[in-house]
Write a structure and sequence with these properties.
By secondary structure, the chain is mainly alpha-helical. It has a single domain, classed as Rhomboid-like (Rhomboid-like fold, Up-down Bundle). Helices cover about 70% and strands about 5% of the residues. The chain has eleven helices and four strands. The protein has a two-stranded antiparallel sheet.
Length: about 210
């Protein structure tokens, strides 16, 4: 598979910035997502934090998933709409994180997971019949079932503060990818109406009852 130059550039920036952060703690701390610093005016962290990662496994996983799902969007919609989806999901994930953890001044996070989650959701909407293999399950999972399950798991994880995982960023990114895909490619309502509804139900519930997650 030929990798698009724009996608390659995004992956390279993630790799270079992350490797720099692995060995330079001052660099890492200066650009990571941190509630207190962002509240003091360091808004650039809303962007830069998405190009840093905790370790090589975190980096490789995010970039591999991006490499798998992004071409579906680029092939169908083109590079410009892919960039809208990627960066829109990135900011949506960090915005929800900022909102949900606004009183936790020392809360910090890094990673492209919000942007990647948005790309996954947009790809599922474009191709709801896709089959995803999830270890350790021996059978493929339809994309729309994975999408609904992922949203519900993220909501549950936010509510119960499960593990050292940025569930809010994943959830916000997924919502961003979902909403932006409907905006830039409204034909999806015709092609994948059932999937649009199924993935939309958890989002509507979150918007209605999100204040009860805390």
């Amino acid at each position: 598979m030929n990798i698009d130059k724009t996608l390659l550039l995004i992956i390279l920036v993630n790799v270079i910035a992350s490797i720099k952060g692995f060995s330079d703690r001052l660099f890492f701390d200066k650009y990571k997502f941190q509630i207190g610093a962002i509240n003091r005016g360091e808004k650039i962290r809303m962007l830069t934090s998405a190009f840093l990662h905790v370790d090589y496994l975190h980096l490789i996983l995010n970039m591999y998933v991006l490499y798998i799902f992004a071409p579906i969007i680029i092939f169908k919609l083109g590079v410009v709409k892919f960039l809208i989806l990627y960066f829109g999901s990135l900011f949506a994930g960090n915005f929800l994180t900022l909102t949900f953890h606004k009183d936790e001044l020392y809360y910090s996070a890094v990673g492209a997971s919000g942007a990647v989650a948005g790309i996954i959701y947009a790809a599922i909407l474009l191709n709801p019949a896709m089959q995803l293999f999830m270890f350790p399950l021996p059978i493929p999972i339809p994309g729309y079932i994975f999408g609904v399950g992922y949203l519900l798991y993220s909501i549950y994880g936010m509510k119960n503060k499960m593990g050292n995982i940025g569930h809010a960023a994943h959830l916000g990114g997924a919502i961003g990818g979902y909403a932006l895909l409907l905006l830039v490619y409204p034909q999806v309502f015709t092609h994948s109406f059932t999937t649009v509804v199924l993935l939309g139900i958890p989002i509507v519930l979150l918007l209605l009852f999100g204040n009860k997650l805390k």
